[in-house]
């Protein structure tokens, strides 16, 4: 009951504020949305604590959804540890973002009911996703968050850049969703169902199923896992599909926090964990997961080091951290990836919201080159942002330390070549993470103030309605790792997860972390501190150094600064050809070739009849003459044939 | 032969609109009176027909795969041609779709049609008779008459109340569809010669020799493919839509396109199982091309109606993929997709009509920034945009998803390429939405544009409810055709097995 309330009160809030917003007024609509979310944020964590207290997992069936022959799916809420963890996190973080938005959107010229309706709907879609009992309902939430992100990224719809970013987010996601949908169809083809309760026990019977593609025979489970993971790559913005995520910064800052922390991007990681009973039997797909995750972690971190927009730095950091989560999932330690997902939700929401607080204070300035020296003017924001970055960089005892270390250790403990690749990438990314985090802190809060006098005079600490959520999140960023690590990855993990995350009999990576050499435990911390030191040298001691470095190594710098030219590449190989092809199909294909045939036939008929018309001259003499000829011919024929 | 209603309900639904026509024709007075009376009479007639058709909805026996509410009157006994009516799971919902969309069309044309109002309303009521009759007919000759009869009022609607190039479009529409139909007439005669009857139920159980099936299939294909329309005989559709008045576009997209799909399901697939199987790869190829090609063409359109017309072709491509998979999910998906498309594309044409009535242009570039002035319109538009791109929770998802599931059982690439509409559809619809609703208002006349009127709300509300209902609880619709689809799949498998056995005996 609590559980259902947690899922459906955000929907109710969204409906009231979205549909009745213009009638009941802006304040009331906002109140309804926030109230719905607060109720959810009470029920969600309570439902989670119930399950840790020994409540049995269960299923809340709401009703049938699609039925077609053997195909059958229900609307249902799955209640197990994995879902409950996600529900608790989503409702809690989302509630704080709702509250924060009251202050943040206070100055917006437009009525705000639309904004709050979208926020609540977003949370609802995510909750439906994580509580799904079958892949179709998961897909419902999956697409629902896609829609809401589209609406929210394009919230300021009079800005062309926001509209473009919104469309880009939706379409890039859709490109990944198509293989995902085909993957669902393949699961149905092989298993006769897409309900978790039917699929998971049946996996061992399908180990030797094959599926032929490209003229080659593959294990069917591998094909399924690959297709599903492509979907996850889209939603979680992994290498190649990451291009929508930085542009998503066009939305208001609370939206960025919601997309990057609580909802949407974590869906892919959740999917891999949810499908662990299947993924455990697909070693190649898992290797691919680690490869993509680790590569993304490193790749996004390099870009994060060069950006100047405060939100974009954090956006690339999200991309990178999601890579970490996949790296862990790929070596079979789904527990660590969900653990990092939860701690990340706290500190990433914190980072975005405090960045929002900075932007708010700076009169909507986002360029870090125009900041600096803000720590004294907005001390609380500076303090919580320090906490967020300490957590992000994995400095003990902050939350990120526990989860990130677990991931790095797990990749090493896997002992496979791909595991070592993951280890290398994640360690290198850890150094870069620390570097760009402190680069952000130093450029924003310390050193000389670079903003103009006028802006600096206006800098003010945010109202309490924004600061309280920040402080709560900061508390989470401090303690979440310490408190949760015992449950998530401690010795009793089997009891805690209670079967909702599955490890195959061959998979003992989590246990083998204990056997790692001691240096593996310390290396993330060492490289992290080194990263901080470099940032200190470059942005505090010698602020001219970064400029000189970027000039000396201008080639590589431009490559990274321009995000490895992914946008340009996709524009050249996907967008432009599609537009050209569209024109060719339309102008040449339809208008000239296909319509040419009937129109040509029509002209032929018209021409023919014109010729025929010429015979009818209307002159009696001609008619008489022709008749005469006819008679002569007739008589001639008659005579000859006799 | 059963009739749960106890009275000839199908004939009543079919012919009642003509009674409305008689009433409208009897009205005398000045032009204003005639127009007003014609509107009200047409609306009431269509609403009564709708109410009557709801009896079908209630009394239809979902577990019966065969025809229900049967009527049979001897007509040309020496030729074994009868006046026979009946609906099964496949046709019943199309009857409801037709009777639902007619009052919506009449309401949407309320103030918009200003000349020859009486004739307009008459055309619509005659059109309704023809559409409903076509879905109800269980005699091939009767079916053929209704099938062709639809052309006449539609031709008039485009040709009289259409845009500047209406004559070109109307003639193109007429010639395209008529050419195909002539071939169907030949097929009809051939079937009659072979089976000695035109009773559809008998024909469904008459095996036709394989060589004959091929020719029959091609003849049917010529007729139905134009109606669907399948690539490459689709170019009449954008022209017809662009020139047709809004109500004409609605009924064209909503019901007339379904006649092709219905024809395939009623005749080609069950009566010609071998040829259908033989030609399935060909149908898949054309359908996949339709999905990708027309979606791309839609992307390049600068006219709102043309864009939606092309999107219709793409969506109907998904339909033809589904039905030729011959499996349960594929066929059920294609029926559902047709119903959903009937609602959603109708709504999209109505949405174009709303701004066309105000600004009198369909050029996308003339709009922009409507979100500020027309929040309700933006909401309605967003809902149907999402339904069109197949967002789960809307009707568009269920059909498309079932077709993908059905298609994958045939071939991986069929599912993947047939599903390309998921991506391209999102691209052209969101791009359209962005150019019309988002952005800043730059054209002065848009600054004073008005939001939806109560009449327009009344037009959209039932469609919105249905779109969400079909998306959230599709079972209340799929349950109508489950039994029939099941029987059809079984029939198809059995027929193929017989052919294989026969072939085995020969060799």
Automatic annotation (TrEMBL), chain A:
Residues 132-421 form the NADH:quinone oxidoreductase/Mrp antiporter transmembrane domain. It is found in: Endomembrane system; Membrane. It is a multi-pass membrane protein. The keyword Oxidoreductase does not apply. GO terms for biological process: ATP synthesis coupled electron transport; electron transport coupled proton transport. The chain crosses the membrane at residues 6-25, 32-51, 82-103, 115-132, 138-157, 178-203, 257-275, 281-301, 313-332, 338-359, 380-399, 419-442, 463-489, 522-541, 620-640. Gene3D superfamilies: 1.20.5.2700. Residues 65-116 form the NADH-Ubiquinone oxidoreductase (complex I) chain 5 N-terminal domain. One of its GO terms (cellular component) is endomembrane system. InterPro entries: NADHpl_OxRdtase_5_subgr, ND/Mrp_TM, NU5C-like, Proton_antipo_N. It holds the Pfam family Proton_antipo_M. Its main location: membrane. GO terms for molecular function: NADH dehydrogenase (ubiquinone) activity; NADH dehydrogenase activity. Keywords: Membrane, Transmembrane, Transmembrane helix. NCBIfam families: NDH_I_L (TIGR01974), PRK06590.1 (NF005141). This is NADH-quinone oxidoreductase subunit L. It comes from Rhodopila globiformis (Rhodopseudomonas globiformis).
From TrEMBL, chain B:
The keyword Lipid biosynthesis does not apply. GO terms for biological process: ATP synthesis coupled electron transport; electron transport coupled proton transport. The chain crosses the membrane at residues 6-28, 40-60, 90-110, 117-135, 141-161, 173-195, 215-237, 249-267, 279-300, 307-328, 334-356, 377-406, 412-433, 454-472. Its main location: membrane. InterPro entries: NADH_Q_OxRdtase_chainM/4, NADH_UbQ_OxRdtase, ND/Mrp_TM. Keywords: Membrane, Transmembrane, Transmembrane helix. Coiled coil: none annotated. One of its GO terms (cellular component) is endomembrane system. It is found in: Endomembrane system; Membrane. It is a multi-pass membrane protein. Signal peptide: none annotated. Pfam families: Proton_antipo_M. Residues 137-418 form the NADH:quinone oxidoreductase/Mrp antiporter transmembrane domain. GO terms for molecular function: NADH dehydrogenase (ubiquinone) activity; NADH dehydrogenase activity; ubiquinone binding. The keyword Membrane applies. Belongs to the complex I subunit 4 family. PANTHER family: NADH-UBIQUINONE OXIDOREDUCTASE CHAIN 4 (PTHR43507:SF1). This is NADH-quinone oxidoreductase subunit M.
């Amino acid at each position: 009951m609590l559980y259902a309330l947690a899922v459906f009160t955000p929907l109710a809030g969204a409906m009231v504020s979205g549909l009745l917003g213009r009638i009941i007024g802006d304040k009331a609509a906002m109140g309804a949305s926030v109230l719905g979310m607060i109720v959810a944020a009470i029920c969600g964590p309570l439902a989670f604590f119930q399950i840790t207290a020994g409540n049995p997992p269960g299923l809340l069936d709401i009703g049938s959804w699609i039925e077609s022959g053997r195909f059958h799916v229900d609307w249902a809420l799955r209640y197990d540890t994995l879902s409950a963890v996600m529900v608790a996190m989503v409702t809690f973080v989302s509630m704080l973002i709702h509250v924060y938005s009251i202050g943040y959107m206070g100055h917006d010229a437009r009525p705000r009911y639309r904004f709050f309706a979208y926020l609540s709907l977003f949370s609802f879609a995510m909750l439906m996703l994580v509580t799904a009992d079958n892949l179709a309902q998961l897909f419902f939430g999956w697409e629902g968050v896609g829609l809401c992100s589209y609406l929210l990224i394009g919230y300021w719809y009079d800005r062309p850049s926001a509209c473009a970013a919104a469309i880009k987010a939706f379409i890039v996601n859709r490109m990944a969703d198509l293989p995902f949908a085909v993957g669902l169809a393949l699961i149905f083809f092989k298993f006769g169902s897409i309900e978790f309760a039917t699929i998971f026990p049946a996996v061992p019977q399908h180990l030797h199923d094959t599926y032929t593609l490209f003229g080659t025979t593959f294990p069917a489970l591998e094909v399924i896992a690959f297709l599903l993971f492509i979907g996850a790559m889209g939603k979680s913005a992994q290498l190649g599909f990451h291009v929508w995520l930085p542009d998503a910064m066009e939305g208001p800052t609370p939206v960025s926090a919601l997309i990057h922390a609580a909802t949407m991007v974590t869906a892919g990681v959740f999917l891999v964990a949810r499908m662990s009973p299947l993924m455990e039997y697909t070693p190649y797909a898992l290797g691919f997961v680690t490869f993509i995750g680790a590569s993304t972690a490193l790749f996004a971190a390099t870009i994060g080091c060069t950006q100047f927009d405060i939100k974009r730095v954090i956006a690339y950091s999200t991309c990178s951290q999601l890579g970490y989560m996949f790296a862990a999932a790929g070596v079979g330690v789904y527990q660590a990836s969900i653990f990092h997902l939860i701690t990340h939700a706290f500190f990433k929401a914190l980072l975005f919201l405090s960045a929002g607080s900075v932007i708010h204070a700076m009169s909507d300035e986002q360029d870090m080159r125009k900041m600096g020296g803000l720590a004294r003017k907005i001390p609380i924001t500076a303090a919580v942002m320090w906490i967020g970055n300490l957590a992000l960089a994995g400095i003990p005892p902050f939350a990120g330390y526990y989860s990130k270390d677990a991931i790095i250790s797990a990749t090493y403990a896997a002992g496979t070549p791909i595991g070592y690749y993951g280890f290398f990438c994640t360690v290198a990314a850890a150094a870069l993470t620390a570097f760009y985090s402190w680069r952000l802190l130093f450029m924003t809060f310390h050193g000389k103030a670079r903003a103009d006098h006028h802006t600096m005079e206006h800098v003010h600490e945010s109202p309490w309605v924004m600061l309280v959520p920040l402080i709560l999140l900061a508390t989470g960023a401090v303690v979440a790792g310490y408190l949760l690590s015992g449950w998530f990855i401690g010795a009793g993990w089997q009891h805690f997860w209670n079967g909702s995350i599955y490890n195959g009999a061959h998979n003992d990576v989590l246990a083998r972390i204990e056997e790692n050499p001691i240096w593996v435990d310390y290396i993330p911390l060492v490289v992290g501190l080194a990263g901080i030191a470099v940032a200190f040298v470059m942005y505090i001691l010698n602020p001219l150094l970064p400029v000189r470095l970027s000039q000396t190594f201008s080639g590589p710098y431009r490559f990274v600064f321009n995000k490895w030219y992914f946008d340009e590449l996709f524009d050249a190989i996907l967008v432009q050809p599609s537009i050209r092809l569209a024109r060719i199909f339309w102008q040449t294909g339809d208008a000239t070739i296909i319509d040419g045939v009937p129109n040509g036939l029509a002209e032929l008929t018209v021409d023919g009849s014109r010729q025929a018309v010429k015979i009818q001259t209307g002159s009696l003499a001609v008619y008489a003459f022709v008749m005469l000829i006819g008679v002569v011919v007739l008589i001639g024929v008659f005579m000859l044939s006799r | 032969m059963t009739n749960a209603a106890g009275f000839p309900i199908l004939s009543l639904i079919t012919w009642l609109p003509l009674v409305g026509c008689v009433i409208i024709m009897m009205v005398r007075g000045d032009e204003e009176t005639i127009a007003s009376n014609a509107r009200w009479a047409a609306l009431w007639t269509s609403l009564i027909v709708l109410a009557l058709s709801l009896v079908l909805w209630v009394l239809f026996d979902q577990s019966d795969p065969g025809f229900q509410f049967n009527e049979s009157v001897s007509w040309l006994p020496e030729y074994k041609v009868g006046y026979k009516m009946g609906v099964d799971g496949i046709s019943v919902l199309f009857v409801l779709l037709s009777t639902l969309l007619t009052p919506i069309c009449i309401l949407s044309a309320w103030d918009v049609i200003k000349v020859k109002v009486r004739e307009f309303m008459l055309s619509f009521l005659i059109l309704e008779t023809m559409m409903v009759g076509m879905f109800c007919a269980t005699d091939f000759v009767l079916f053929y008459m209704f099938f062709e009869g639809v052309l006449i009022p539609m031709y008039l609607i485009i040709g009289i109340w259409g845009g500047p190039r209406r004559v070109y479009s109307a003639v193109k529409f007429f010639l395209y569809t008529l050419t195909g139909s002539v071939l169907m007439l030949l097929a009809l005669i051939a079937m009659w010669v072979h089976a000695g009857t035109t009773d559809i139920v008998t024909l469904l159980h008459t095996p036709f020799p394989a060589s004959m099936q091929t020719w029959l299939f091609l003849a049917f294909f010529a007729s139905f493919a134009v109606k669907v329309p399948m690539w490459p005989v689709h170019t009449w559709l954008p022209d017809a839509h662009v020139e047709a008045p809004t109500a004409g576009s609605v009924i064209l997209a909503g019901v007339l396109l379904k006649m092709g799909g219905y024809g395939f399901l009623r005749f080609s697939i069950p009566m010609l199982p071998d040829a259908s199987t033989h030609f399935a790869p060909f149908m898949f190829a054309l359908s996949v091309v339709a999905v990708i090609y027309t979606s791309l063409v839609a992307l390049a359109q600068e006219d709102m109606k043309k864009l939606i017309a092309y999107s219709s072709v793409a969506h109907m491509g998904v339909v033809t993929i589904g039905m030729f998979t011959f499996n349960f999910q594929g066929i059920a998906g294609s029926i559902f997709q047709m119903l959903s498309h009937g609602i959603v594309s109708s709504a999209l044409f109505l949405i174009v009509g709303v701004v066309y009535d105000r600004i009198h242009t369909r050029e996308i570039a003339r709009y922009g920034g409507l979100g500020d002035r027309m929040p309700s319109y933006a909401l309605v538009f967003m809902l149907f945009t999402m339904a069109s791109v197949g967002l789960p929770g809307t009707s568009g998802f269920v059909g498309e998803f079932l077709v993908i599931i059905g298609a994958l059982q045939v071939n991986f690439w069929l599912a993947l390429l047939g599903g390309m509409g998921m991506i391209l559809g999102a691209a052209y619809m969101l791009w359209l939405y962005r150019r019309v609703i988002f952005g800043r208002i730059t054209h002065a006349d848009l600054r004073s544009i008005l939001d939806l009127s109560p009449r327009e709300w009344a037009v959209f509300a039932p469609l919105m409810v249905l779109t969400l209902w079909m998306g959230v609880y599709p079972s209340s619709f799929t349950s109508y055709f489950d039994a029939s689809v099941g029987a059809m799949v079984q029939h198809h498998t059995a027929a193929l097995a017989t052919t294989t056995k026969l072939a085995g005996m020969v060799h």
